[in-house]
Amino acid sequence: VQLQASGGGLVQAGGSLRLSCAASGRPFSGYTTGWFRQAPGKEREFVAAIRWSGGNTYYGDSVKGRFTISRDFTKNTVNLQMNRLKPEDTAVYFCAAGTPIFSTSRLEGGYHSWGQGTQVTVSS
């Protein structure tokens, strides 16, 4: 499956952005889709994941209560609604698809397809 992430941009602290991950080649059905982010000079960090079948979600501690991951059946996309953004949320955000054991969705090794990344910049 090929993934295309979009929706990044520049926003002030406290604002919101909505990222979208679109799949081509095959639908998301049967996959878990995750969002990861990488800030300059830092390791890639798990943000959130959703199981397409059933809609189970899983969040990284730093975004719980602020970010919401969801799936759109009609558009075959996985979306990440980001609210109350902070400067420390600034990073390149990547979406990924795979079949990890869901309890280990935060680990990159379970994902076999990655999108190209979209830049999110939060100004203070």
Strand portion: over 45%
Mean pLDDT: 95
Given as residue ranges, the uncertain stretches (5+ residues, pLDDT < 50) are none
What class, by secondary structure content?
mainly beta
The Rg value, from CA coordinates, equals 13 Å
Descriptive overview:
By secondary structure, the chain is an all-beta fold. Helix content is 0%, strand content 52%. It has strands at residues 2-6, 9-12, 17-24, 32-38, 45-51, 57-59, 67-72, 77-82, 91-98, 111-114, 118-123. The strands form two sheets. Strands 2, 4, 5, 6, 9, 10 and 11 form a seven-stranded mixed beta sheet that branches. Strands 1-3-8-7 form a four-stranded antiparallel beta sheet, with no helix packed on it. A hairpin with a 5-residue loop joins strand 5 and strand 6 (57-59). The radius of gyration is 13 Å and the shape is globular. It starts with a strand and ends with a strand. The model has no long low-confidence stretch (mean pLDDT 95).
Give a brief rundown of this model.
The protein is mainly beta and 124 residues long.
SSE arrangement:
Blueprint: E1 2-6, E2 9-12, E3 17-24, E4 32-38, E5 45-51, E6 57-59, E7 67-72, E8 77-82, E9 91-98, E10 111-114, E11 118-123
Parallel strand pairs: 2-11
Antiparallel strand pairs: 1-3, 3-8, 4-5, 4-9, 5-6, 7-8, 9-10, 9-11
Key features of this structure:
124 residues; mainly beta; 7-stranded mixed β-sheet; 4-stranded antiparallel β-sheet
